Amino acid sequence: MDKNDMILISVDDHIIEPPDMFKNHLPAKYAADAPRLVHLDDGADVWKFRDTVIPNVALNAVAGRPKEEYGLEPDGLDEIRPGCYDVDERIKDMNAGGILASLNFPSFPGFAGRLFATEDQDFSLALVRAYNDWHVDEWCGAYPGRFIPMALPVIWDAELCAAEVRRNAEKGVHALTFTENPAALGYPSFHDPFWNPLWKALVDTDTVLCVHIGSSGRLSIPAVDSPPDVMITLQPLNIVQAAADLLWSRPVKDYPDLKIALSEGGTGWIPYFLERVDRTFEMHSTWTLQDFGGKKPSDIFREHFLTCFISDPVGVRLRHDIGVDNISWEMDYPHSDSMWPDAPEVLHDLLTRENVPDDEIDKITHLNSMRWYSFDPFQHVPKEKATVGALRAASAGHDVSIKARSHKHTAAEDKLAAFSAQIKAATAHTAS
Amino acid sequence: MDKNDMILISVDDHIIEPPDMFKNHLPAKYAADAPRLVHLDDGADVWKFRDTVIPNVALNAVAGRPKEEYGLEPDGLDEIRPGCYDVDERIKDMNAGGILASLNFPSFPGFAGRLFATEDQDFSLALVRAYNDWHVDEWCGAYPGRFIPMALPVIWDAELCAAEVRRNAEKGVHALTFTENPAALGYPSFHDPFWNPLWKALVDTDTVLCVHIGSSGRLSIPAVDSPPDVMITLQPLNIVQAAADLLWSRPVKDYPDLKIALSEGGTGWIPYFLERVDRTFEMHSTWTLQDFGGKKPSDIFREHFLTCFISDPVGVRLRHDIGVDNISWEMDYPHSDSMWPDAPEVLHDLLTRENVPDDEIDKITHLNSMRWYSFDPFQHVPKEKATVGALRAASAGHDVSIKARSHKHTAAEDKLAAFSAQIKAATAHTAS
To answer: May I have one GO cellular component term (chains A, B) (predicted)?
Structure first.
């Protein structure tokens, strides 16, 4: 397939929320208490909500930035691409990257919206709903066919969460961002009947449970003084814990239509994982009493899980061991793992190198994600205008560079020190 | 290659320590205080040391047992194969399994011998030395050429640990069992200069640092109520954390000859892992300041790490992405992941299915582990008597079955309840 003929849907990108996002959607009585974006003297913008300050970690918005300027120091909105937070600019960046459509995860509230869980449940629910209405109606609504809408959960209450899933489903939303491990956040685990109302709402509305890497709130690092490379290396690999926890769980047995996406989870580890779960079943099910009705765990995985990758040679080579119907593609804009704006080139080189036939390319690049997320962009964008080539032609002249940082340049040594301080602060309350 | 012509060295098996192991090696003044094996009324044998009771978890000694009898309840020595704890019987079992030689990890003291770390450092050191003398002189010494000797570390003191490495090296020992994460055990991490004397002793004596899965003392389970299958699935996958932590560490840079074995770590995850570390380096080294002198992290991995597998189709298929010189084989006797006594059949089927040529079979089955552990069994056992076929011919008539459990049969529901209780007890002090 010619690179320009690919149709790309990315199932994992990120929004850096804009300051005015609560304006139109939060009841007036809560307006003064809503999280707000604050501009600091050093040029950084941070979200403040009650006692919590959430910096916009620069690695999360590096699209267009030279590697030499990577780091963890907070950025200002004026230092990142406007496509991070402005939907009109996002569409231009998507066009320049040849991307037809995109599923956008939240940033400052956390993947499961846990920031909004306060002692005032009415206020908390209002925040979740406001976020969802802004995301679905304003952000996704501005460009029909260009975004797969996704709701934030009501993470502290399964009944309210189910209701929010149903409310959003009526607006055409079929994705829920969630945590890869509610137990790690202090809520009942996936194995607890607590969540039954949620599972039922998800299958009733054909909504996908999206568990993004890093959404457990647990830092998976071996030691406080492990170099940052260790954490970066391990980030996508830790999703294997969520995959195992969900695959062996009761919900996938009780709700045969339950759909789960391992967001930003990569694919190269899955063939080994599937061997391991089948062998575990073969050796131990006599005493663990696992029963999949005559099926193997690997069958169950393929019935329930959608995987995705950015650029993953091993996963593409072993795609038939994973299941070609279970693999989707993602761009991860504007994070540092993203290949934007050259994502189509990187992907096409890989698919060509691995001799992936056209029908499998179509499944991986868009058909699987369309089916999984009940999403049909071609209702709004004709196919001939949806290709990499057509989208890029429409965006000719769009500048894909980034402004140099306006605040003081940080030396690598200082970036490392900042990383170390952040890890120590994050682990201080859990240190054994 | 014919199955009977394979020469098998297993780099990961386990000893269930016999009750008289301290008899000949501990100074008399400590004899009364040594750990002792106690026979309980219910038929189980447990090790007792001060306030600690360590049951012989039955899953750790199931060789020969039908799967229906698997479980976590403690066993008595009279319920497990004598080959678990009696070296003469072990050799017979090795012969029946076609195994030339074996590296044996400890059981009740923990992989890093942490049980022996008391407030009385002289006593603790005496225990470590006694264990090592028993293991090296009695167990391995009884059958030259049949065991790769391995020492327990002095986990609480790097200088003493270095001295113990040197003392054992003089007796021909080139393996040290260690923890995959000293920080998780409360000691300085791999990144701390604390361990420098140990690194130096290891490279001076060409001794391999063996980090076995599960040796961090951390339970890697998503939730307390995750089914046991989750933990069983994840066990080999968690070694990826140690691999990342060591690969990005200073010791592999400062000690170019440092050799590390990822014991029972499997291989199928490694091609994906190597892609990930190279990409991490490519994208982030400008600010993380990683520098491997012009090499890539995957090069460093192949210089420093030996991997192993029991039966791992993905790893064998992708052996050239891992490095054929970096893969060894293991049997895991007498644990539940072991294929004994049919390990040669399982391995040979896999190697045949994946069309592995003879020279690569030899590397994987014995040449890599001989080189890595400075071990030459052929000084003692002529090659023609070292093959699967020759060893089995010599053991004809050896009974490979197991006695039925002598204590009350445990229903699966009760095994699950026991598992749940164990997990709750193990996590009680770390629950957040």
So the answer is: cytoplasm
